[in-house]
Structure formats: structure tokens, C-alpha cells
Amino acid sequence: MAEHKSYDAKDIQVLEGLDAVRLRPGMYIGTTGPKGLHHLIWELVDNAIDEAANGYCDRIIVSLNADGSVTVEDNGRGIPVDIHPTLKISAVEVVYTKLHAGGKFNNENYAYSGGLHGVGASVVNALSKWLVVEVCRGGKKYSMRFETITKNGKVHGGVPVAPLTEVGKAIKSGTKVTYLADDTIFETVEYEHETILKKLRELAFLNKGVEIVFIDNRKNIEESQRCVTFKYEGGIVDFVKFMNESKTVLYDKPIYIEGERNGIKVAVAIEHTDSYTDNVFSYVNNIPTTEGGTHEVGLRSALTRVFNDLARKTGALKDKDANYIGDDFKEGLTAVLIVKMKNVQFEGQTKTKLGNPEAKNAVEGVISDGLVEYFSSNKTGKILSQILSKAEGAAKVREAARKAKEITRQKNALDGAPLVGKLASCTGKNVENNELFIVEGNSAGGTAKQARDRFFQAVLPLRGKPLNVEKKRIDQVLQNEEFRTIITALNAGIGEDFNLANLKYHKVIILADADQDGAHIRAILLTFFYRYMRELITEGHVYIGMPPLYKVYKKDVEEYVYSDNELDAAIERVGKGYGIQRYKGLGEMSNDQLWDTTLNPDARSLIRVSIEDAAEAEKMITVLMGDNIDARKAYITENADFNKVDNFKPTAAGK
Ligand code: 0RA
After folding, report:
1. Core-most of 199, 421, 499, 597, by most CB within 10 Å?
2. What is the pTM of this model?
3. 134 lines ligand 1 (CB under 6 A)
């Protein structure tokens, strides 16, 4: 390799920005865990997507290379190579060494970019051991390399090895970036195939017609998974169809509406199914808005207003009838909403909630007009009547549920008795410290009751599998004893009445066996929380307890092992003459063992459930328990090992 003549001191001063990134990576990419690592890819892909969104590029290739580096390549115009008038360095160099440099080269269209939330390619450079960019533009090919170097005992990230250099001719144009993430910065530099696959598929749905290729050339990847191409000419209409694959739809073709108001671009695809729950996904500038926000409020208002009007006009609602509410049209709704706008403000716990008030009116306006137009045709009458009768059913059940809830409330107030028998509550009164263990099975529940610290740990054993909430309406859920017990124990209500302020336990810990049944019970409980107590998850109160799978022991050493991957290492540590005990279920453990491994806050490991985990659990339940047998078979085959603890990725390891 060539000798690394870096720029002189003056240039390193210019690089102070990048050193700041290395000093506090969290400020720029959120975390140095797996999420932050993957953020590097999204940062570069965002830039390529911007180029595609402006119509200059229709193919993006993301490759995981065998040496651990990542390449992101596009066939856009190529990053400009001319010398910046004041900085006296090439535009390429500016892009990779200046924080937030992207804007300087922006034209008007470019400003919608997902890159708005992005901190730019320079952050990727700062956090890489090396980065090489190749640009093809104007018939020429250019290249530039950056490295993280040590100078006078100090580490500097992303230092140019030489200025941008012409290296040959080019027929087409485009940009190709390859970087190696710095393993001294990141907790792990292992990329997750599945995470990248999902995200790239999502981006392909959101950017119709753009071909996105994912190549995984790492050692352990099966031949059949090495190369995947996504390209959806139908965009979000295809996305909705994809999500409804395992469901029974009420009409064949999703309704698609797009338009622009006050500079805000809006597009939505909508399709109802016979399910009782909804799946609404929204994005702002390609960024998922998991917590919703003003644009979703606009969508809801449009649906409520237009469908109520149409119900009156067609006589589905009589003069004496009350209007439907938004939830009635949301039942069974699958929708993808995308908004593109400038000056985006994100709010909420995870900064995934759109705050801009102007987005509500724009979305509501575009979608209302679109729906009115769509249903003014005489060809759409049947679709309308399907939607209206679905809403009518929802409204009836809403009323029934209200009554059922009233009964439940009265019942709970009257006979706490059966509950007291099951729930072993704790004596401490500080709800912030208190923990509720929801334990699979009576026998494990009994052990947990014996083993726990009664001061702050309560135990609720579940007898069998709780009712599968898929395909159940809220009134049926409320009649199920297991769920009633959970609702009563948590004390915070359910659905619209859910109020976190009344929560009795700030940690709700699901404790199930590490087998298929246990995974199923976990998924059912998560789906229940996701649907009826979502805040419990978004506010970080739900955890998965991790019982050990094995104990490796010898005379006076013993080591507990929580995943198959760790077993070999533990055996090695314990050394010759070891024995192994395998725990098939929680019920096999003694009081002391359960305390030492799973209950004791100083020793146990908990996984905090994120909203993404819960959504994933719901999806698993929908597919596994839903109507579509083929989809179910396919899912089971693809995800045969649905015990994997990492279905529930740790977002914050709790103690
Ligand atoms: C600004 C202006 C121009 C190209 C780009 C940005 C650009 C940036 C990236 C980042 C990754 N791939 C990219 N492709 C293009 C070109 C302006 C012009 O040609 O006039």
C-alpha cells in the first residue's frame, strides 16, 4: 500500500469536525451499538435515494464485502468534482470531510431528501478505518481515499490520503463509496443480513421504480441469499398488497391517492381487510414515523369526514344515526402514507413523530379531495359499500365493548377475590421500583412466588396459553380471564382508556420458557400490549426475562448460559471435567436457581422490548394465526427457529 502522506496541520484543523464525531459518535448516529453501525449504511443509501428521487438515478447497489467493508453504489450524476471556490478543495472532499456539507450543493428539488435527518457522508467517513469514493462524471473516473490516522499520539478520523485524482475514463456516471467501519468505535461491526434486507425492501417500496440490489458476499451467507433485487413499479400500492398477502381483502385493488398542497407532497395507498385491527405505516422523507404525528391525524380526519359524508349520501347512515368515529374506518385498514416536505420537525420519545402542524391540513386536503374524486365514479360503489359495512360492524362492536368494559369494571370492583389468589403482589408501594413477572405456567409461577423479593417483585402465573388476540375483538379479549387478570393487575386500563399514570408496576417482565410454546406465549402477550396498551411498550415498561438454557459446572464453579452461542465459551472457561445441565423449562429450576439467574436484578439480564419488536411479534402472530394458510406455511419454513431470543433485539439491556 502507498505511503500515507496525509495533509499537513492546517488541513487537520479543517478536520476538527470529524474528530468531534469520533469523540461523541452517539450525538451523530444515536448509538455505537448495532443500530448505529447500520446507520452508516442508511446514511449513504439516503444520498443515493435522493439522487433517485430527483430522477437522476434508477439503480442502487449495496454490498457487504468479505473483508467487512460496505459498498454503496448508484448510477446518478456523480458527486461534483470541481474545486470549491473558498475552501479550495474538491466538492467530493467537502462532502466527506465537512459535517452537513450536503446542503451546499443542493438545488431546490434536492431539499426534500431523507438526508435532511441525515448527518451526511462525512460522519460515515469519520467513523471508518478507511473510505474510498469513486466518481464517474463527464467521461472521467475519479477516486479519493480517506483514512483514520494517528498523528502526534492523536487519532484523526477520515483524513484525505491525497486530493481527488483522475484515474481513468468513464462511459456512464455514478458514485461508488466503500468504507470499513472502525471497530474501535462500534460495539460490533457485524452487519445483520435480515435488517438490511428489510430496510432495502422498504426503501424500494417507497421509491417506486428504483432498483435496489443487495449483495451479501460475506463468508457465512448461503449462495441463495447472496444477491437480492427489489424493484416495485407499484410503489406503496405494492407495499399494501405485500402486507395484506396473508389477509382477506375486502376489495381487490388498493386505493391510491397522491397530490401536493402548500409545497407538501402526499401519497397514500389504502386497502381494507376483514381483520379487526389496522396496519398504518407512515413515512416522512423516507423516514418511518413509528409514533405517527400530524400527517396521520390528517389521514384519519380525511377518512372520517369523507366516509361519513358518503354514508349520509348513500343512506347507509340515517338521520337518527350518530356519525362513525375514526376508529370505525380504521378497523381492518392497511395503509401506507408518505409525505415529503421541508423543515421537518420530529418529536416524541424516539423522535419518530411528525410535529409540523401544516402537514395535517396538507394530508387531509389531498386525501379528502382524492377520496371524493375516487368515489364519484360509478365503478367504485361496491368498494364503498364494503368499507361502510365494515365501519357499521366496527361501530356495533364498539358499543358492545363499551358495555362489556363497564361490566368488567364493576366486576373488578366487586370481586377482586379470584385475582388475589393468582397474583402474588408485592409489599413495597413505590410503583417505579415495582416489577410484575408474568410467568408461563402454574409450576414456574409457584417457584417464582417463592424465589422473588416480595418487597418489589410481584408474580402473576398464567395457566395456559392466553387467548390469541388476533381475530378477537376487544370485547372478547376483555372476557378472557388471563387478560382480565393482567389488565386488573396493571391497573392502567386498556385501549383508549389506557392511562400510564395509574400503572402499578414500572417493569412488566414476561417470563416464558425458551421453547416454541414459550415463544408463542411471548408473542401473544406482546401483541396484546402492542394493540391495547401501546404506551406500555413505547414508554419502555415491557421486558423479556431471560432464563438460562444451561448450567456448566465443576466442583465449586458453575456458570449459567443464556444462549446456544455462548455454550462453547462457557465450557472452555469451566474447563476439563465439566458437567452440563440443560434447563428445559422454568419449572425445572429450584427457588434459588431462579433467583440467581432470572429474578435477581444484580445478576439477571432483561431485554427491553421496543415498539419494533412488538410490531414484529404482531406480524408473526398475524401470519401464523391468520387466514392465509400458504403465507403461514411459508413463514414457518422461513423462520422455523422462532425461539431465537433475538426475535426481541435488546434495545436497552435492563438490569
Ligand atoms: C449534488 C449535486 C450533484 C450531485 C449530487 C449532489 C450527488 C450526491 C451523491 C451522493 C451519493 N450519490 C450522489 N449522487 C449525486 C450534481 C449536480 C450537477 O450535476 O449539476
Report:
1. 597
2. 0.68
3. no
